[in-house]
Amino acid sequence: MPEQLDQPNGRTSTEAVGQAGAGGAMEFAATEAASIGQATGPSARARSLWSDAWHDLRRNPIFIVSALLILFLVLIAIWPQLIATGNPLACDINMSQLGPAPGHPFGFDTQGCDVYTRTVYGARASVTVGVCATAGAALLGSILGGFAGFFGGWWDALLSRISDIFFGIPIILGGLVFLSVVTNTTVWPVVGFIVLLGWPQIARIARGAVITAKQNDYVQAARALGAGPTRMLLRHIAPNAVAPVIVVATIALGTYISLEATLSFLGVGLKPPTVSWGIDISSASTQIRDAPHMLLWPAAALSVTVLAFIMLGDAVRDALDPKLR
Amino acid sequence: MAEAILQVRDLVKYFPLTRGIVFKKQIGAVKAVDGVDFDLFQGETLGIVGESGCGKSTVAKLLMRLEEPTAGRILLKGEDITRLSGKALKAVRRNIQMVFQDPYTSLNPRMTVGDIIGEPFEIHPEAAPKGERRRRVQELLDVVGLNPEYINRYPHQFSGGQRQRIGIARGLALNPEIIICDEPVSALDVSIQAQVINLMTRLQKEFNLSYIFIAHDLSIVRHISDRVAVMYLGKIVETGDEEQIYEHPTHPYTQALLSAVPVPDPSRREGRERIILAGDVPSPADIPSGCRFRTRCWKAQERCVVEVPLLAVPPHLRESGGPAAHDSACHFAAERDCAATAG
Amino acid sequence: MDTLLDVRDLHVEFRTRDGVAKAVNGVNYSVNAGETLAVLGESGSGKSVTAQAIMGILDSPPGHITRGRIFFQGADVLSLHREARRVLRGARMAMIFQDALSALNPVLSVGDQLGEMFVVHRGLSRRDARARAVELMDRVRIPAARQRVGDYPHQFSGGMRQRIMIAMAMALEPDLIIADEPTTALDVTVQAQVMELLAELQREMRMGLILITHDLGVVADVADKIAVMYAGRIVETAPVHQIYQRPAHPYTKGLLDSIPRLDQKGQELYAIKGLPPSLLRIPPGCPFHPRCPMAQEVCRTDEPPLYEVGPKRGSACHFWKETLGG
C-alpha cells in the first residue's frame, strides 16, 4: 500500500492547500476562523503576508480616506500651483485681517497675505519636515535598535542607556534651547532636531521586534543550516520585524508634523520667509478675537494632516497585526 | 550498525543565573544538561524521552551547536565537533540537520516554500549547482509527499502536517546522515501524527538516516525507536533497547513514567496498578543531592541522599543476563511489573 | 438517573470576513449527575465551541448560536437573561481550561482569586473567604496551603496551577464541570495526578463532568461514555467500554488504529488519509467521506443521521454494520 499522504494524491490535488488552516494544534477559535479562510479554495494564489495586508488595506475605508488625503497633501506639497495661483509672499498690507473676498476664499492675515495661498503652501514645509524626519528617525532607529536586539549584550545595554538619555530630554525645552541658537532658516535644523529626539522611540520598537523575531524557530533553523549573521538578519529577521516599525513610523510622522508646528509656533522652528502652518498659527493667535479666520484655516489643515497620518498608521497596524491573522 | 556515527561524552550545559544590570554577579546556574553520554549508530533511531525541563531539547540544541556546551565532547564519526567554528562548523552542519517541534514558527512566513527548502543550497552553494536547485526543491517536495507545484506558495497556506513536511524537506536538502527531531509530531492533530511518523520511517529507510527522536509521548517513541534513553533533570537515568526500557524497566522513574501513560483501553483501567509520583520535578537550578530523583521516589533511602548512582548495568542484575540487565542509574534498580503500559 | 444537561440540535457558526465557518452542526448530547462524558475530537471538530456555548462564554461576534437548545436542570439556558446566566456560571456550572497560567489573573494572589468566588456568590467576608480558600487548596492537595495562599499564580508549577483551577471550579460545588483539555499542557506524571484528583472529586461530589480531549488514552481511564466529534458533528456515541473494542464509525476506528501498538512495531502505522475539512467548506454528504476508506456514492450525497446501533450507541455512518463487523 502506498503511503497515506495528507492529500489523496500528492501530484494532482490542490484541494489540500485549499483546506489549509483547518489543522493545527489549537482548537478552533474565533481568531482561527479568520486564518481558515486564508487559502481560498483550490484556486488559491500564492499570497505573501504583504499582499494579504494590501488586500485588507484596499477594503478598509479608513485606509482609503487617509491615503487619499495624504496623496492630495503630497501633491500640493510638491506642486502648490496646482490649486493656488497666488504667491504666498505677495502681501498687501491694506488687506490686513480682511475676511473672505472674491479670489481669496479664506480672507487675509495681518500682513495682508492671502490665507488660502499660505495654507496651501504651508503643506510643503509640514510634509517635508514630517517625511524627512520620519525617514531619518526610522533609519537611524531601526539600524541601532535592530543591532541592539540582534547582538544583545553590552552593545544592547549601551544603546538602551543612550536612548534613555534622549528619552529624558523634554522635547519642547530641548527644542527651545537647541534651535534658538541656530540661525539657518531652512527646514533642516528642525528635521535634524526631530531625528535626534525621535530615533530612540523607533529604536525601542525595532529592538523589541528583532528580539521577538530572533526567537522564532526559523531563525534557529537557518543557523542550523549554517547561515551567517548577515543572512539571518536580512533574510529572516528584518522582514519579520519591519511591520511594527512601519506602523510606529507612520503614526510618528503625524506627531512630527505637529511637533514642527509647535516649534514654529514658539518661534524656534521654521522661520519666515518659509511658509509654515505653525508660523501662521502663531501670528494669528494674538488676533483670535478680531480675525478668527486667520487661525482657523492653518489650524484645520494641520489637524487634518496629523489625523490622516495617524489614521493611516492605525489602518496599517490592523492590516499587519499578526494577532488578527 | 556497528559504527557509532555520533558519540556524546559527558555533555554539560549550565545557564548562569545572574543578578544586577551593570555589575553582573553569578548567583547560580540552571543545570539543564548535567553530564550526558550516548552513542548513535548508523541507520538507527535513538529515542530520548522525559518530561518538560528534563533537558532533552537542550541536548538537541547542543548537538546542533545552537547552544555552546559548558563541557563535554560531541564526536561525529570520530571527529570532535564540540569546538568547531566558521567554515569547519558549516561543513559539519551539512551532516546533521534538525526538524523542529512547532511547524508554525519553524518556517519563515515571509518566504515561499521554494525559498525555504532552497535556502540550504544558497548557504551551501556546492551542494547543488544553481540551475538544478529548483528541480531539487521540487524533488524534495515530492519525496515528503507534497505537490511539487506548491513551490511558490507561502507557509500560512498549509496545514500543520503539511508544514511539518516542508520542515522535513528542508532538513533533507543537504543529504545529512543524522536528523535530530525535537518533538516533531507533538503539535499535530492525532490523525495527522501517524502520517508524519510513517513519512519519517520511510525516509529513514530510503536515505539510511540516523535519527535522534526527542519526545514526551512514550508510545510514539516506542514505535519509532531502536534504543531509548530516559532523561530526568539533565541526566540520562536509564537507557537500553526499546524492549528493555518498555518491558523491563528497572529505574523507578521510568516505571512511573510508563505507568502514568494513559492506555486507550478501558477494560484495563481497574486491573492495572498506577504509580502516581508525588510532587513536581525539582528546579534544575537546585538539584537534589545524591540521586536527583530521590525527592519523588518511593524507594529512596539514606544512600540515595549521599551517593550519586551511576548509569551502568546494576551489579545485582548483571548475573541474570536477561533484558533487565541494562544501564540504569539507580541504587535499588529492580524490575517491577507495570504491564507494558505504552503498548 | 436525572438528566443534568441536555444539548439539543445545537448549531454554532462564526461569521468571518472570509465566510461563515460552521463550527457546530447539530450536536446532541446529555450528561447525568455523577456521570462523565468525554467529548473526543481534533482541532476544529467543534468540541470546545460546544462547551463555550453551554457555558455562555462564546465570543459573539463572531460566534452565533443559530439553532438548538441547551437544557440545564430542566431549564433552557439560552433563553435566560444575561444576569441569570452569569449567576448560573460559577455557581451551578464551572469550567476548567487547558492553560491555567493564562486563565488565572497574574496580579492577584491565588487566595484572593479563590476567595473572590465566596465573596461574590456567597457574600462571605474577606477573612472567611480566605479561610475557605485555604480549605479548598487543601482539598486539591496543594502542600502547605496555609503558607502558599498568598502566592501568585506564576509561583506555582504547571500541575499546581491546574489544581488551583480545579479548586476554583469546585469552589461553589457546581453540578456540572466542563474540563477543556485539562491535562494537555502537563507532563505525563503530573497528568496522572491531576486526572486522578479530578475523577475523585467528581465522584465525591456527584457532579456531571464533561471532559473535552483529543487523547483517546485519557478518556479511557475516566469516562463513562464518549461522544466523538468531527467537523462540528457527533459521529459516534457509546458507553466507554464498547467504543474501544468495536468502534461503529470509520473515523473512530481510524483514530484507534493509528495509535502505535506493540505488534505493529517497525511496521507502518495506520494513518487516516487527508486533512480535516475547512469549516468554511464542509463536504456535502458525510463530512468524513473524502478521508473514509469505506466511502461509497451514497456518502457523497446523503448526510448520515446518527443511527441507533445498539443500546445507548449511535453512529453517523451509512455503513455502521460493516464497520462494526469488520
UniProtKB/TrEMBL annotation, chain A:
Keyword terms: Cell membrane, Membrane, Transmembrane, Transmembrane helix, Transport
Top-level taxon in the UniProt lineage: Bacteria
Domain ABC transmembrane type-1: 123-313
Principal cellular location given in the protein's record: membrane
Transmembrane feature ranges: 62-79, 127-150, 187-206, 241-259, 295-316
Membrane topology (UniProt): Multi-pass membrane protein
Subcellular location: Cell membrane
Listed InterPro entries: BP-dependent_transpt_permease, MetI-like, MetI-like_sf, OppC_N
UniProt-listed PANTHER family: ABC TRANSPORTER PERMEASE PROTEIN, OLIGOPEPTIDE TRANSPORT SYSTEM PERMEASE PROTEIN APPC
Protein family (similarity comment): Belongs to the binding-protein-dependent transport system permease family.
UniProt name for this protein: ABC transporter permease
From TrEMBL, chain C:
Extent of the signal sequence: none
UniProt keyword terms in alphabetical order: ATP-binding, Cell membrane, Membrane, Nucleotide-binding, Transport
Principal place of residence: membrane
CDD domains associated with the record: ABC_NikE_OppD_transporters
Record flagged with keyword Lipid biosynthesis: no
Topology versus the membrane: Peripheral membrane protein
Domain ABC transporter, chain residue ranges per copy: 7-256
Cellular compartment(s): Cell membrane
Gene Ontology MF terms: ATP binding
PROSITE patterns per record: ABC_TRANSPORTER_1, ABC_TRANSPORTER_2
Keyword Nucleotide-binding: yes
InterPro entries assigned to the protein according to its UniProt record, in alphabetical order: AAA+_ATPase, ABC_Ni/Peptide_Import, ABC_transporter-like_ATP-bd, ABC_transporter-like_CS, Oligopep_ABC_C, P-loop_NTPase
Family classification: Belongs to the ABC transporter superfamily.
Protein name: ABC transporter ATP-binding protein
Provenance organism: Streptantibioticus rubrisoli
